């Protein structure tokens, strides 16, 4: 039974750590300036190949006011996401250290895995809220275009 609990904890840890692993591999540093993805390319925000927009908004012709609202909403969430990422990262690090320790405590490991999972859940919830805020900025025609873009990306999302 103890091994099953350990296996479940490690499985949860590995599933929750994938986004953090991707960030670590990219050499993520503390945020300074706009959040990742908000540096506008040659086309400017909303222009061709605009890296500053979520994928479902790329290619949609946005007014300057819409661009400003999207930027403000995305920028406002950065500190919240960063805080949750730090919590999840620290919990994962402590769980890895505990797993390799001779003083393994299943209750503490479970609590750390739970903390990491809660932080990842908060990140997912914040991303869903942001998507809803961004959709609210769009006109009905733009929402339809965004929906069509989302429908064309069938299957699970792949990390960028």
Characteristics:
mainly alpha; 0% strand; elongated; 160 residues
Structure description:
- The chain has 160 residues and is an all-alpha fold.
- It has helices spanning 2-25, 64-99, 106-137, 140-152.
- Helix 1 packs across helix 2, helix 1 (2-25) packs across helix 3 (106-137) and helix 2 packs antiparallel against helix 3.
Short description:
The protein has 160 residues and is mostly helical.
Largest sheet: none
How many β strands by DSSP? 0
Whole-number mean pLDDT:
75
The gross shape turns out to be elongated
* Sequence stretches where pLDDT stays below 50 over 5 or more residues: 20-51
> H/E element string?
HHHH
Strand content: under 5%
Topology of helices and strands:
Layout: H1 2-25, H2 64-99, H3 106-137, H4 140-152
Helix pairs in contact: 1-2, 1-3, 2-3
């Amino acid at each position: 039974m103890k091994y099953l609990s350990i296996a479940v904890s490690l499985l949860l840890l590995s599933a929750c750590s994938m986004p953090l692993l991707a960030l670590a591999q990219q050499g993520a540093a503390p945020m300074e300036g706009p959040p990742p993805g908000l540096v506008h390319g040659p086309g400017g925000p909303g222009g061709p190949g605009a890296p500053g927009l979520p994928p479902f908004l790329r290619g949609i012709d946005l007014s300057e006011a819409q661009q400003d609202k999207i930027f403000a909403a995305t920028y406002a969430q950065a500190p919240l996401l960063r805080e949750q990422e730090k919590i999840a990262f620290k919990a994962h690090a402590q769980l890895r250290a505990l797993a390799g320790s001779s003083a393994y405590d299943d209750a503490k490991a479970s609590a750390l895995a739970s903390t990491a999972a809660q932080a990842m859940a908060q990140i997912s919830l914040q991303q869903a809220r942001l998507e809803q805020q961004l959709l609210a900025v769009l006109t009905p025609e733009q929402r339809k275009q965004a929906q069509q873009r989302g429908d064309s990306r069938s299957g699970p999302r792949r990390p960028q």
